[in-house]
Amino acid sequence: MNRTLFGKELKSNLFVSGIIVAVVAMYIVVIVSMFDPKLGESLDLMMQSMPELFAAFGMATQGATMLDFLLNYLYGFLLVLMPFVLALIMVNKLVVRPIDQGTMAYLLATPNSRARIASTLAGVLVAMLAIVMVLMTVIEIGSSEAMFAGELDVGGMLQANAGLFGLWLFMAGLCFLSACLFSNAGVALWAGGGLVILSYLIQAVSQVGDKFEFLRNVTPLTLFDSYGLAAGEMAAVGGAMALYAAGIAFFLAGIAVFCRRDLSL
């Protein structure tokens, strides 16, 4: 990769990434602070009154442990969609907008191959997601230990986060491939992003009652099983590895398409 371009693009995306991290951190701290038996009883009552709504957002299980509590209220919605929003914004800034506005021509005019440029842009996206994951993990552990020392199964959470990053890589890779594949800016941004949103909606519907349970096998997002990963189940680990493999394949395909694409800039 080109170090100068990598550093420049990484720095230019710090602001939006900081906003995402701040929002996620706020929600993590709030959720951790809600780990209280009395509040848990109130949440149980809310869940019983609106079971379909809670299930649609992946919050159908009221865990007895701190880890189960976090998995229920963070890993079914917030920690899936917020990183996806970040990936979508970054793909737009790194690939879609430069091609649409013609500024990509300046990069192509430098003595760097297309493969090197595309690899650098992909590397920026992956690196930023990795930074967000590290910060999020630190916030989860720090806030849990500060408020409820010894309650969090750190090992289980790290296993869940390792699988969660595979899901992030899958979503980001799909968006990156879409950006490299299509010439129209709107299609380039939303073909991949729309597929992710559609997959999430299908997954949400599949969790609302037994009537739509068959839809769980339609979306690849079901390969992410936070509870199974935390417990070290091999099926969940296999699903996470499949997401990693698909995400890497999407990025490699995007780089290959970018190298062969006719860019009329």
Automatic annotation (TrEMBL):
Superkingdom in the source lineage: Bacteria
Record carries keyword Membrane: yes
Membrane spanning stretches: 12-35, 73-96, 117-142, 162-182, 187-206, 226-259
Entry keywords, A to Z: Membrane, Transmembrane, Transmembrane helix
Keyword rRNA-binding set for record: no
Name of the protein: ABC transporter permease
Species for this entry: Raoultibacter massiliensis
